[in-house]
Amino acid sequence: MGRGISIFMKSFYRLAAVVCLIAAAIFIGTNISIQAGGSQADGRMYRVEAARLANQIRKGGDKQIDLSGCQYVYRVTRGAKAGGDEEALQAFFEETDSDYLVKSIGGTLYRFDYHTYTGAYEKRSMVYSNLGLAAMALLNGFLLIYIWHNILKPFEKLREIPYELSKGRLAAPLPEQKNRYFGRFIWGVDLLREYMEELKKREMELLRAQKTLVLSVSHDIKTPLSAIKLYAKVILRHMYADTAQLDGIAASIDAKADEIGEFVSQMAKSCCGDFSGMEVTNGQFYLSALVKKTSAYYEEKLRLLHTRFQVEAYTDRLLRGDFDRSVEVLQNLMENAVKYGDGGSIALRFAQEEDCMLITVANSGNTLPQAELMYIFDSFWRGSNAGSSAGSGLGLSICRQLMHRMGGDVFAQVHDQQMCVTVVFPM
Known about the structure:
Helix content is 56%, strand content 16%. Helix 1 runs antiparallel to helix 3 (120-158), helix 5 (183-236) packs antiparallel against helix 6 (243-271) and helix 7 runs parallel beside helix 8 (323-340). The protein is rod-shaped. A hairpin with a 2-residue loop joins strand 2 and strand 3 (108-114). It has nine helices and ten strands. By secondary structure, it is α+β, with helices and mostly antiparallel strands.
């Protein structure tokens, strides 16, 4: 993981800054709009009220003025006659310090004093709008912090782990986190790390054991091999003419050859023993869970490969074995069907015999000759239909070992030009 703030986090910080700026712009713009709207409303409403009061004065005189219904105009003052004494007119205009509007009614000037502040409705609108915008801004801020703390920050710590594991650089154990989004992922990655670390240890132990075996066997073979060479020289030089002595030499050569053969057999058993190295924890699981786990992945994969995939009807049963290893066995068989089939169709079939459930993976095309079926579960053996397909010849051997450990079995047969591999699970 790089030093400092990664590009990933910088992008998030830029996004958060943009969101904050947009929220601030909306906040300011809304306030300006409300204030402008309130001012315009004030500009309209005090004129309306002044016009209504002027009509009252025209109809009933200035003694009939009713200001109870006015929100902006709060006082009406009668002044001098229009065109009258200049000093009286000046006093009339200067005796108030508020905003006012002057109208001439019946030749008399009337001054309508009004308030310029925003009315109660506009004030409430501004308060409610600001509260709503503030709540929205807080919600957005909380959402950004939540995403950063619960999703992006844990992902930032984990995003380089798979790459490091792929390069064989096994990191220290990951700290456990009760993260609802990445908790299971962290747990799975840590299990993967431990598994890879265990495999690395086993690989080193296997290499050490192989070297020890080779050195030991080569040393043990030297003694009988030297004896055989000595007997061969005796025979070549015709040092013994007696038939009984020659028979004894032949018997000794045969014994030494058997001894070498035994060493070779031990080496072969060591090389072709248990390759899986996987622990099996037998328990109970339902057939439907196994089928769902397998078909969920291969339905999409086979659809992309344009291969018809069929899961035949079955009756759900409780099976005995290791669920994870059972999934591994079926996935191995499915991969073989994809790799060695003709791409036409693959089917999962089910049958029940006594206390066992049989699951068959059948694929069309590229079937094996009947004579080769007995060898397909041997280590390193590959059938004549393998062609140029990559493989080690260990998959089916591992499947058989796993099934035997779970108290089951696996066998293969060719039926109606289809390659059928069947796993047997105890119920």
